[in-house]
Amino acid sequence: MTLTYYKDGSLLATYHNLSSYTISNARPSDSGSYSCEADRKFFFVHKTEKTRSVWLTVQDLFPPPTLTIRPIEGSSVTVSCDTWLPWNRSDTQLHYSFFRDDHTLISNGSSSEFQIPAIGKGDSGYYWCEVATASHSVSKQGQRSHVLVQSVPVSGVLLDTQPQGGQALAGEPLVLVCSVAEGTGDIVFSWHREDTGEHLGRKQQRSQRAELEIPAVGGSHMGRYYCTANNGHGLARSGALNVTVRAPASRPVLTLRVPGTRAVVGDVMELHCEAHRGSPPILYRFYYNDVFLGSRSATSGGGASFKLFLTAEHSGNYSCEADNGLGAQRSEAITLSVTEPPPKIRLINGPHRCEGLVQVEREGHWGTVCDDGWDTKDVAVVCRELGCGAAKHTPPGKLYPPLPEEDQPIFIQVALCNGTENTLAECEQVEIFDCEHSEDAGAVCEAFLPHFT
């Protein structure tokens, strides 16, 4: 028997004793109308039989792939090779290959995606992909797509510091941080001083942030700074940032100032505290025997003072503290002895200090008291002021020669004491108008004499 196969009426093949025709790698071009014819011979009888025609449609296993890529310089990009399988062949395993220009990027991978972590201008070119079955019996190549990697100009340039805000400590490092809100590719960063015109440094890197460190700042680094950035699309500049350098307060020096050569009860003492180094404002605190007295602030440098009215209880140790927020510093302690003021009255030329001619002191000069109206109430006040005993007599001053010189002053004409005052100065007084030294007053007080056993 002879079998003849036809497609669209054209002879395909003739076989003897073979009942099938195989299309080994079907393609859409194999679609058409198929039929076959059989010739049989039985001895001398020849018989031909022909089948009806059958229409065969050969479909693509998958369409040609489509390459998808949308690049922005510096960004992570996913390249996709997209195709699809018919529902009845969805379990067919496909392999993917990616190409750029004449280079193979991925060969026979199992994923339809290819990742470029950070695309750059050098990644521009013609891209395409190829999809094949595992046996490579079916292989299709997508169209070539030209990819031009786009660069984004720099913008939003900002200068900041570490520590932030442009606040730096003397002797410590200061980092100038220049950053951009947008911008791709290699960026050239540059740092400048606005007030001096000085160029500080330059860095080129594929980053939106760069740093320049000043290892140890000092007073000369105070000023206005700015930075620029450029990735080839034009220079962009930041605003100016004011950098201030603050120095901790040094150990302060405390000075005690009193009107005279020594501190006495009733004086107003000035405590002056000053740190010779340190950034203002500086807060000064004052202490007496480690008890807080008060504080004063120096807003523009220099020291500060605190005034104290002295009593006998103010003898002790004084110190001060300087604090500008960068660590408080304490001064050395100064010991102060407060003494009673010397008496403004005395009895002279008598047998002991509690008897004699009465003299009073004014502005460093000694003078006498007239005996007009001089009585025991006046003497009692004198005795109390001198720390003597009770008033005993009111003798005339001439009993205690020698008499004062004529040019020695007489300060009080009449003392009007009521006997309860602590000092003669507290009594009402009549200034001198008519008196001579022959009328000087005297006083006798009970003396406190030491006892010997």
Quaternary structure state of the chains depicted:
single chain
Helix content: under 10%
How would you describe the shape?
A: rod-shaped
What profile does the largest beta sheet have?
7 strands, mixed
Number of helices: 1
Overall radius of gyration:
57 Å
Give the amount of beta strand, in percent.
over 45%
Number of strands: 37
Distance between the termini: 170 Å
Would you give an account of this structure?
- By secondary structure, the chain is an all-beta fold.
- The protein contains one helix and 37 strands.
- The strands form eight sheets. Strands 31, 32, 33, 34, 35, 36 and 37 form a seven-stranded mixed sheet that branches. Strands 15, 17, 18, 20, 21 and 22 form a six-stranded mixed sheet that branches.
- β3 and β4 (45-50) form a beta hairpin.
Q: Keywords, please?
A:
seven-stranded mixed beta sheet, 37 strands, 46% strand, rod-shaped, 453 residues, mainly beta, six-stranded mixed beta sheet
List the helices and strands and how they pair.
Elements: E1 2-7, E2 10-16, E3 32-42, E4 45-50, E5 54-56, E6 66-68, E7 77-82, E8 94-100, E9 103-109, E10 113-116, E11 125-133, E12 139-141, E13 145-147, E14 158-162, E15 167-169, E16 174-179, E17 187-193, E18 199-205, E19 209-214, E20 223-230, E21 236-237, E22 241-246, E23 253-257, E24 268-274, E25 282-288, E26 291-298, E27 304-309, E28 316-323, E29 329-330, E30 334-336, E31 345-348, E32 355-362, E33 365-372, H1 376-385, E34 391-393, E35 410-416, E36 428-431, E37 442-445
Parallel strand pairs: 15-22, 33-35
Antiparallel strand pairs: 1-2, 1-3, 3-4, 3-5, 6-7, 7-10, 8-9, 8-11, 11-12, 11-13, 14-16, 16-19, 17-18, 17-20, 20-21, 20-22, 23-24, 24-27, 25-26, 25-28, 28-29, 28-30, 31-32, 32-33, 32-37, 34-37, 35-36
